[in-house]
Amino acid sequence: MERADAARNRARILEAAAALFAAEGAPNVTMDDIARAAGVGRGTLYRRYPDRASIALALLDEHERVLQEKLLRGEPPLGPGAPPAERLAAFYSAMVELLEDHAHLVLGAETGRSRFETGAYGFWRAHVHALVTAAGTPAPDALADTLLAPLAPDLYTYQRDRGLTPDRITAALTHLAKAALS
Amino acid sequence: MERADAARNRARILEAAAALFAAEGAPNVTMDDIARAAGVGRGTLYRRYPDRASIALALLDEHERVLQEKLLRGEPPLGPGAPPAERLAAFYSAMVELLEDHAHLVLGAETGRSRFETGAYGFWRAHVHALVTAAGTPAPDALADTLLAPLAPDLYTYQRDRGLTPDRITAALTHLAKAALS
DNA sequence: GTGCAAGCGGACACGGTGTCCACTTATGGG
DNA sequence: CCCATAAGTGGACACCGTGTCCGCTTGCAC
After folding, report:
1. Which residues in chain A are contacts of B169 at CB distance < 8 A?
2. pLDDT tens per residue across span A35-45
3. Domain B59-180 belongs to what architecture?
4. Pick the CATH number of B1-50 from 1.20.1260.10, 1.10.10.60, 3.40.50.300, 1.10.10.10
5. Protein chain A, residues 9-48, with a C-beta closer than 7 Å to any atom of nucleic acid strand D
6. Predicted confidence (pLDDT) per residue in B111-161, tens digit
7. Average confidence (pLDDT) over A105-127
8. Interface size, chain A vs chain B, as Cβ–Cβ contacts under 8 Å
9. How far apart are CA A34 and CA B102, in angstroms?
10. Using CA atoms, how far apart are residues B142 and A3, in angstroms rounded to an integer?
């Protein structure tokens, strides 16, 4: 059971972190900043979240769960029922939305390889792997990662900064999905 | 004009850095390590290379130039003359070879977004963009980045660590190339 | 009200980065 | 051949972020 003050502090930490990530960009926010903004000590912060990535993960968790639920049990084409190529295209489109809303705040903290170690990546990977296998393409193991690569938060923010619109990125991904799983 | 001792130190720095990157993995090597191994002071090191990424870049430069030359003026299918889909597949294959030889040593230093800021990425991007445009696909701007994403060094080392072989990765990329630019 | 464990927070040590400046040395002109 | 000079050198230093540790506080159950 969690003590009341602990719960309150957890909420304050997440709230403060979300605000700071949004204002400064996740990589520019230090653990110290977060602790100070939340009005807690460093020790308290580290007790729950050993690093920035785990805070980002906690902030993302809810949004990811919603999408995961839709993939497993939602309506086609996102959920089961549609042909693999269309399910992949729908997944891409949903992920672009998710990135558009949250990449600049949060995903920036998942720098480099740590991205692949998260549970979320495992889920996306399993989903795409199933689609790829259903479509009967060669080397499904490798192809699943390959098809997830364009969703790297780093790449997305880079593309957005270069002036590409979400629509245009989605268009490219839709073409890719249809072509790769035909 | 560069003084003789400066040239000698530059060579020693690059040699020491290459050895350390190979032995310890690029992210685990500090600037101090490199300076000590090269037998120069920190100031000397920083004078030429302000960070690890610039050292990695210098080490990669030669290999990248060779491939770039082949893309511009080499034999088909890598060079001009073959259909876009086959040129892209050949490019993927060559990049996998390059990653296999050097990713674990060097590309690890190009962490996160800095990858996109390098001249090399610009070159790959222009090349793929030309192929994509020639193939007449929609949203060529976005698609060029999308098709380069699977070559991220982070992803490559992750796939290799998970047991995927270069052959298998190349197979997935070949399928992707043929499918995307048909 | 009281005992106590969970929670708290700031002080601390560590390690890496990047800067700065007094010293050294190669180089080219006299 | 030697000297003036500017490029080059190297290590000391200050700064910053991280993560840990431990004495104190506080909520909770009885």
Report:
1. 139, 142, 146
2. 999 999 999 99
3. Orthogonal Bundle (1.10)
4. 1.10.10.60
5. 30-32, 42-43, 46
6. 778 889 888 999 999 999 999 999 999 999 999 999 999 999 999 999 999
7. 85
8. 109
9. 38
10. 49
